[in-house]
Amino acid sequence: MTNKFVKPGDTIGILGGGQLGRMMAVAAKHMGYRIAVLDPTEDCPCAQVADVHIQAAYDNVEAAEQLSDASNVITYEFENVDLEVARIFEEAGKLPQGAYPLEVTRNRAEEKQIAVDASLPIADYSIVQTFDQLTTALESIGFPAVMKTISGGYDGKGQYKFETEEDVDGARSFMKDSETYIVEQWLAFDVEISQVFTRSQDGEISYFPIAENIHRQQILHETRVPATVTENVVKKAQQAVAVLSEKMNIVGTFAVEMFVKDEQVFINEMAPRPHNSGHYTIEACNVSQFEQHVRAICGLPLLPVHSFPAAVMINVLGKHRDILLDRLANYHGLHFHDYGKKDSRAIRKMGHITFVGNNLEEIDETIAKNNIHMW
Ligand code: ADP
Ligand code: MG
């Protein structure tokens, strides 16, 4: 595809109206773009800041055509986009990201395969459909292990962990007849990191600082920058990302989640869009992952990335939100984001907070003073 230039004043269509769409829209707005969003939920996070909300199901082809007519360029904010719909946009020449990265990242088997093809290290894995196949797979993979639905999972949803052989029987009721699963060796990693980056339509890559991610119950809890990894690991991670992004011809912001063990970098998961572990870039960098994404899909040159020496981002889940909002006036030194979600659930991502500073010790002190770790 030739470089598609979209001018401020034109409309960016966003498929999906969650927090990522909302933060993309906010970044696009300050550059003067208009926003149309397709999402089935009334008053969804992105609709609250968009010019046009087409309220319909993601696989509604008529609604997709309406979005296409209303938009000069289209982007997606999540990977479970209907492929038919993505192809309609691609054929109309309006989807610089393309449908292919979606195809790969929405299916864990294809995602692993692309890493294998690129000779990048990954945890041992096997694809299974039946309980018998699972027990055979576990014989070679060993324990601990984790089983994940092949598609549709996020924030640890659709995952089943095997600490020991005793957990195997419980998988019988977890497994559904027509589902396919991936079983993976559970890696005892030293650190978990992610590389969020943006690739332009000309193939230029700009990297954000590598983030260290701390998960609780398989949901991202905290992102810390700089990550506690060596220069050697940073180099390996960026080389891996460059290979993967070329293979998929990535355009826009993209994230690769990785495990680091004994200086080795294992690919875990990829996201063809801005990523939760890149939210810190809003306050800690001169250009956020969202602004850089908008620049890429609109055919603007990427900005060189400069950043604060340190940042910490903590997710605000439903179970934290009310306490946090009530006490907000007592907290110092934190940036607060609320996604405007109406339906608050205990482990749903409702917002996030970010601290920036000269070093992580200083930030940890600020966090301690605020008594933020109450949860
Ligand atoms: P999703 O983010 O789609 O829910 P992930 O595969 O990224 O799925 O799993 C969520 C988290 O669970 C990971 O970030 C990591 O902390 C942990 N995890 C998943 N798979 C493994 C594994 N094979 N070894 C160690 N930890 C894992
Ligand atoms: Mg993940």
UniProtKB/TrEMBL annotation:
Q: Which reaction does it catalyse?
A: 5-amino-1-(5-phospho-beta-D-ribosyl)imidazole + hydrogencarbonate + ATP = 5-carboxyamino-1-(5-phospho-D-ribosyl)imidazole + ADP + phosphate + 2 H(+)
Q: In which pathway does it act?
A: Purine metabolism; IMP biosynthesis via de novo pathway; 5-amino-1-(5-phospho-D-ribosyl)imidazole-4-carboxylate from 5-amino-1-(5-phospho-D-ribosyl)imidazole (N5-CAIR route): step 1/2
Annotated GO MF terms? 5-(carboxyamino)imidazole ribonucleotide synthase activity
Keywords (A to Z) from UniProt: ATP-binding, Ligase, Nucleotide-binding, Purine biosynthesis
Q: Which InterPro entries does this one have? A: ATP-grasp, ATP-grasp_carboxylate-amine, ATP_grasp_subdomain_1, PreATP-grasp_dom_sf, PurK, PurK_C, PurT/PurK_preATP-grasp, Rudment_hybrid_motif
Cite the binding residues for ATP: 108, 148, 153-159, 184-187, 192, 215, 268-269
Catalytic activity, EC = 6.3.4.18
Domain of life of the source: Bacteria
**Sequence ranges assigned to domain ATP-grasp in this UniProt record:** 112-298
Q: What class of enzyme is it?
A: ligase
Q: Which Pfam families match?
A: ATP-grasp (PF02222), PurK_C (PF17769), RS_preATP-grasp-like (PF22660)
Q: Which HAMAP family match?
A: PurK
Q: What does the record give as the function of this protein?
A: Catalyzes the ATP-dependent conversion of 5-aminoimidazole ribonucleotide (AIR) and HCO(3)(-) to N5-carboxyaminoimidazole ribonucleotide (N5-CAIR). Catalyzes the ATP-dependent conversion of 5-aminoimidazole ribonucleotide (AIR) and HCO(3)- to N5-carboxyaminoimidazole ribonucleotide (N5-CAIR).
Task: Indicate the quaternary assembly.
Answer: Homodimer.
Its family remark reads: Belongs to the PurK/PurT family.
Return the NCBIfam families for the record: PRK06019.1-1, PRK06019.1-5, purK
Q: What is this protein called?
A: N5-carboxyaminoimidazole ribonucleotide synthase
Native source organism of the sequence? Halobacillus seohaensis
